[in-house]
Design goal:
The protein is mainly alpha-helical and about 170 residues long. It has eight helices and no strands. Helix content is about 80%, strand content about 0%. Helix 2 runs antiparallel to helix 3, helix 2 runs antiparallel to helix 4 and helix 2 runs antiparallel to helix 6. This is GTR2 protein. Pfam families: Sugar_tr.
Length: about 170
Amino acid sequence: FLQVFLVEKAGRRSLFLAGLMGMLISAMAMTVGLVLLSQFTWMSYVSMVAIFLFVIFFEVGPGPIPWFIVAELFSQGPRPAAIAVAGFCNWACNFIVGMCFQYIADLCGPYVFVIFAALLLVFFLFAYFKVPETKGKSFEEIAAAFRRKKFPAKAMIELEDLRGSEEA
């Protein structure tokens, strides 16, 4: 419920990055808690707090924000297909993690969350370098930002020249 108001105030990209980084730190704290559990009994509390923080950070960023971004990155025509692909990827990954977690946990032991931390680091870096802020921007502004990243300034001028000559 709070996310609806928070996303308009803080922005999609910043919340997404904060959520990913919080989940990364929580996953590392879970790993430390599990590794040191046999030496310090109070590490079980560290693990529990880390789990709660992981869920909170998920609900702040990677849970809801991709749905905002997908809806804002695509124009009206391809938007339903993009949301369907995003939903399929979301549920497919949830299914894979749910089905494989126990086997991976048996294989990795207390270091199982290092895999999640590594993936979260990759996701954070991708989002930091590739995902634009979409707060308060129209689809046309977002598409123009992607075109500027894809084509350098000189290529954009040449592209505009080509468009101008086609219209003439």
